[in-house]
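Comment thread on ticket #2218

A.B. wrote:
> Attaching the input chain for the structure job we discussed in standup.
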Amino acid sequence: MKQCRIAAALAMLLLLPGCWSSRDIQNMAYVTAVGLDYKDGQYIAYSQVLNFQNIARTESTEVGGEVPIWVGKSSGHTVTEALGSLSATSQLRLFWGHVKVIVATERILRAGMSGAIDAINRYRDIRYNVLIYGTNEKMDDILTQKSLLNLSPLDSVLFSPGPIYSQVSPILPVNFNHFISAINEPGDPAMVPSIGINHTDWEMNKQKKPMFALTGAYFFRNSKMIDRMTLQELRGARWTFDGITRAEIAVPDKEHPIASVILGKPHYSITPLLEGNEARFRVQVKVRGFLNELYQPYSVAQLERLSARIVASEMKDTFRAGVAKRCDVLRLQRELYRKHPAKWKQLAGSEEWILNPGSLVEVKVKVKLVNTGKYKGRP
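C.D. wrote:
> Ran it. Output below, let me know if you need it in another format.
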């Protein structure tokens, strides 16, 4: 009986098909970034393809060697048609499972992202957690931009923004799934970072070398872009994200500094205040940090008070700039919707907007400097 079972199992194995549909990995083109544009009623799709043999980190890899970047471009009446047309001339099968970034031009952001969102999410290979950016640069320039030391584009801020953004940026990277969640959540200020190219800061052999730089953020409501805010306008937003690990401020200001302070990991809270047919808000920030430089003999307690004033001032300035552009940068409306949804619906109406310059009644900030470096207290 045992031999019969073994014979039957072997016979069944002979009936199983082999890997006839398998493909050699070296015979596929791996798309790492997707660019989207909209012009004259046509969607324009870009695909960035990298040769992983050139960017794999091995002992024989030549640091600083040229890394070729291939960019495909096609158009269509829909995003799906535009993306599909790229396969007709790619020569190799395009594999979309390694897409890490989606970059959308300002034109398509203004036209509306609902079609693009639907098309991209129906591609089974493209993951939900890819990064998304907006830009007003030429898409060819964005997708062919190199990293420092001519390293792979995968080592640039576009693909790996986390460590840098958490230290020098007033906003954090945004994943595509978080963006979709935000635009479908009433009161939530959906935001997409704006990526640009800096042409002045870096040189190689006395020749200017462009590098990626964050330039601001685009804000959305109901899948439609509302407006764009610059980095300077967004400075107060950094105190609302606990993912910000290192934010430097000059005390009391850049023109007459007496100290430089590093702050990070703020704790941000919002208290909605309902007053008749109007909602007002009180916000509170608690943040810890350390003394980076001291130019004049001020005590730690004095520096904490001055730092708190600067943080509060930045938040108020960002709030006013956001209200002028109808962008809820401090996420006040979202808090009202979550705590008092009925009241929010009553006040927001069809425009889903309730803020005015008087909506923010108090910004309370507490700064704690936990150390002063190797020097203790005053110099």
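A.B. wrote:
> Thanks. Noting for the ticket: Residues 300-324 form the longest helix (25 residues).
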